[in-house]
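Record filed below.
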Amino acid sequence: MSTSKQIYVVPRWGGSPTDDWYPWLKQELEAASSDDQFDYQVHLLDMPSWDIPVIERAVSYLNEVLPAEKLNQDVFLIGHSVSCLAILHYLAQASEQHASTPPQIGGVVCVAGWFSVDSPWQEVLNWMYAPIDFEAARRLIPQDKLVVLLSDDDPYTSEYQENEKLWVERLQSRVNILAGRQHFSSQLDSDVLYAIRELAGALPAPIYQHN
């Protein structure tokens, strides 16, 4: 096992490292290390004041945990819900710090990522309307290395097709619409696991369906 893959998982709104599929994902990736011939190092982040996420605080913490100078092709970022936006803000800022030669990371998986939700409250609106330099963020992600997983019955985003369109238009993402997954809050999720292993180069890329 010669290559170490650094996997950073940023929880959903109000989530912690012990919630949803995060602990299961860590266990499964570590178990797959031998088969994939990668040393998966999985970091489940405990975001500060995450009951009411604030953009500046989130980006500051991500910069602390993963400074821009440590970004490279063996770093993978996994976001869930609001943390997908937190990752984009973070990458845009990191890109600005390296405007001439931005580092390339291994890839990004955005799970239940949204640009709008059905019934937003003020703290959600703060995230929805905060500008993001999508071009700057995208410079750090290699082509075809931004994967978005959405559900056709997410209770927070009934207009999932509009979110799909925006992910493609704004960031040239590979989007997969999955049936009956709601907000991807189960205790395991094989699609997230597969997406990470595929980005790392251990599994073949699936065919992503667009509705």
